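Before we proceed, please read the two lines closing this message. Report back on whether the structure tokens fit the sequence:
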Amino acid sequence: MALPLLPGNNFNRNVGKEKFHKSQHWGFCNNVSMLVSEDKPGIGGELLFGQKMKPKYSAFPKGIGSDAPSWVAFDKQVLSFDAYLEDEVPDKIQENYRIRRYKIYFYLEDDTIQVNEPELKNSGMPQGTFIRRHRISLPPPDEDQFYTVHHFNINTDIIFYGRTFKIYDCDTFTKNFLRKMGVKLNSPGQCPEDPYMKLRRETLDCMDPLRPYESSDTLKQFLEYDRKVLRFFCLWDDSASLFGDRRELILHYFLSDDTIEVKEVIPHNSGRDAMSLFLQRRKLPKYGPPGVYQPGQITDRTVLNVYSGLGENRVKGYLLDKYKLGKVDQEFYKDDDLFIGATINVWGRKVLLCDCDEFTKTYYKTKYGIENFTSILCKAPPPPKIERKFPPYTGFGSEEDSLRSCIGLRPTPHQKNFRKFVEKDSYGNISNILRFFAKLFTHKCADVDRLFVISYFLSDDTISIFEPIESNSGITGGKFLKRTRVKKPGQEVFKSELSEYIKAEELYIGAKVNVNGYLFLLLNADKYTLNFMEANSDKFPMSSIELILQKLKEEESKSRELKQVLRAADSKLTKMVDYNTFRDIIMSLTVGKLTDHEVITLARHYQVPEDTKPDMNVLIARAHEQLKKNAFENFERLNAICVYQDREKKKVLPSKYIRRLCKSSRLPLTDDLLASILSQFEDSKEQINYESLFCTLNWRMNPVPELEAPSYLKERCEDEWLGMPSPIPAKYINYLRLLKDVFGLE
């Protein structure tokens, strides 16, 4: 038999040792690296002696080993033998020897052996791997040789390091393998029983108390109802006792082991310590507290001692008392004892079950068929709220600061609405400031013509008033009222309640506002204010187009008259009228039902869109101004380039080419200004007459009057509205759309 392919075993035992070195190299077989011998011819082309004497047979069973190396053919194939060992136990009365069982594993790939001892409960000895895996040499005098598969058989003794193991059986694979190798197997034997283990087993059998057998298995209930809990909302009314009150509780019933847990719902500022549990999880007796029991009085089983006299063959054991004499019966709450309206005894406290959750209702409906789950009010009626009265305002500081001194011993500053301030503060083009054009409503001749700009800041509800400066008026303009909150008129100064201030919802065109004794009439508003109020029409009803149209529909009897008046005002049949005419007609027909603000909202909704196309003269004047500053005069060169590109001599070129030419020639005009000028010279075919364009831009040949700068007032303020006098909200109104939406008239 050939030895396994190990270092130093590169020879054939059936031929003899080779007297020369056989060259080898690493190769791969079935994705496994291995040593491969090379057959190199000798001198003259003849094979060497070792190459001629290759074996023609294999010692391994047919179909298993073949001609491949042994460790490849028998990879992961192990022979398993059952053996035992008689281990002497000196100086012990109970036993003289001990039978220890082992498993012997023989690895066919490299002839290594491993011995394991199965673990035995409460053996008191280290068990597991008895001999680690390695090649084991034969006992003396053959210690220079190792164990092979031919040394193993059933009912034979084998010696490992001086210990004699008796093999009495093996598994099916091992038997089939040995038969294929031609080994005659002995009949399997029996492992003798350990006398000490036999005595110990008999002793434990006598000590078993479960006779007669009593079933106490709770695993089924645990597996079926684990993590399923019934929840009840309870009330413990302890108001009858001294300093007692009503306590809200939550009862949890665990279906897995029939235990109960109670938690207390502690309201805020109740003065009670927050305890985790009102009752720890346990079984709850129905009649408690039951008192103090003696040790051993409360038990699940009663065990009786078995006495068989003083004979030599006396039996020592125990017996379970099936009659349960002297047992103390305790009744515990079950799931069928809990329902809405029931009163349970929680260690002397009467707890009323008032309600339960949806899972609990489904459980009782499914198992017990209960349909009535009418809850009971468990919350106590709220105590009468005592109105807190504050002393009146003293006049020192603001009302809010005086009120804070009455709330706590340590006065704290008044907290403003910071979130509102951040959301409504000015940023970018959004000012969040409502500006109104107003005048004084007075009978004094000197103040009749005075005009003001009232600004309302949405971030903190403050108002500032600015009077524009008018030359030779005899009145010093400027800041009329610094930014502050304005109280509503008619309020008592020294009172306990906080004063009311003017809100943004009270401001609209046509309203009269009393600011510290001065009565202002709001005449108009800027475009941002009108847009803001129309976007928030739920807070500003005067800007709601739906409410305005509803008021007009109530005047349906005057629809024909309204149509005739508007038709008469439109003499040129343009289907539109100017704003002043439209306002006079609407105000005269509605007879005061619509305010000025509502008329402006109506006019803005039905206004005719204005032509936003810039004026040609303004564009040319701006272009000449930029060209003069940069001293640009290359218009003849630009015209020559265009003439060269104009192959058809039509004096027109595409607008894209003209734009590209201007940009490449570095014409000092901005993109927006250049695009506006080119659009003015563009025809329907998107072509431009280049001679006309560059002739117009030539500021030396065709100068235009310079733009006049707007005249500014000498004194300016951020609150000043530069658009005075107030412009009209819309120039023309499409009355035809209005008649269709309101009366359905054509």
